[in-house]
Structure formats: C-alpha cells, structure tokens
Amino acid sequence: MADYSRGELYIPQNLYDSDLVVRNLINEYDWSERETDEKVITFVDNEASYGKFDYLESQLKKLGISFNRKSANCSDVPDQLRMYRPAEEGKEEIDKEISLSYDNYEPYIEISYIKNILREDINEIDKLKKIQELVNFYGEVEKSLYEY
C-alpha cells in the first residue's frame, strides 16, 4: 500500500499557458492547491502517492516540458526534489532526483556522491573540480526553472 504525502509540481508559467496538451494533462489531477507567480506555477497535492506524480512526470518528460517536483516523504526517507530539463542546443538533458534536508528543505549532496568522486583514479585537482561542479549544480537547481 502506498504512503500518501505532499507533492509539489513546479512548471514555467509560459509553458503551461502556451501548450493546451500540457494544460489538459495537468488539469486532469485533483490538486489541493495552486499558486502562481510571474514565471512559475505550482500545483500541490497533499495526498500524492509517495509525494510523486509518476504518470504526469513521464508525460511531461515525453513532451519535453521542464519541471521540478518536491516530495515530502512520510517515513525515514528524506524529502526529494526531482528536476527535469530537456536537452537543448549546447546543453544535455537533466533528470535528477536530489535529497532535501530535514531542517530547511534545501538540496544537499549525499556523502556517497563525494566518496565516488574521491575513489576515482584521477588527480586531486580534478577531484576537487568535480566536487565543485556538484556544489555549483546543487546551488543552481531551483533558480534554473525561472529561466524559461
């Protein structure tokens, strides 16, 4: 049986407004809340299965629509942030799930990621560069949705 918890879906306002397929797909859900600012629209479901929207997320990805999803988990698993950005000219596709801290809901880097970099057979400067890239990426996670 699934655990039900809060899920939040963030989509650029202009993509929601301009694409009827996306709008119809999102409006099929029974959202608890809906919030809008100038650039991003937020949809909230307080009883989402594991705080996720598997079908909706897969369809948005198939359509190439950028989104973030935050999931509040009920158990000892940390909250999650999924970030999807389609591939664009000069940029690779991004599809990552990131753990969020318990205390301030901010992304954090899991120790296992850093350990894997430290185990690589590369020089120390390259290891530091890879860790810095990871830190920079996590720092820019939410800001990038506003660029659409």
Task: Characterise this structure.
- By secondary structure, the chain is of the alpha+beta class.
- The chain has one domain.
- It has five helices and six strands; from the N terminus they run E-H-H-E-E-H-E-E-E-H-H.
- It has helices spanning 13-18, 20-27, 54-63, 111-119, 124-140; strands at 4-12, 33-36, 40-49, 67-71, 80-85, 94-99.
- The chain has a six-stranded antiparallel beta sheet.
- Strand 4 (67-71) and strand 5 form a beta hairpin.
- The protein starts with a strand and ends in an 8-residue tail after the last helix.
- The model has no long low-confidence stretch (mean pLDDT 83).
Keywords:
alpha+beta; six-stranded antiparallel sheet; 34% helix
Strand element count: 6
User: Rounded to an integer, what's the Rg over CA atoms?
Assistant: 17 Å
Distance between the amino and carboxyl termini: 37 Å
| SS class | alpha+beta
What is the N-to-C order of secondary-structure elements (H for helix, E for strand)? EHHEEHEEEHH
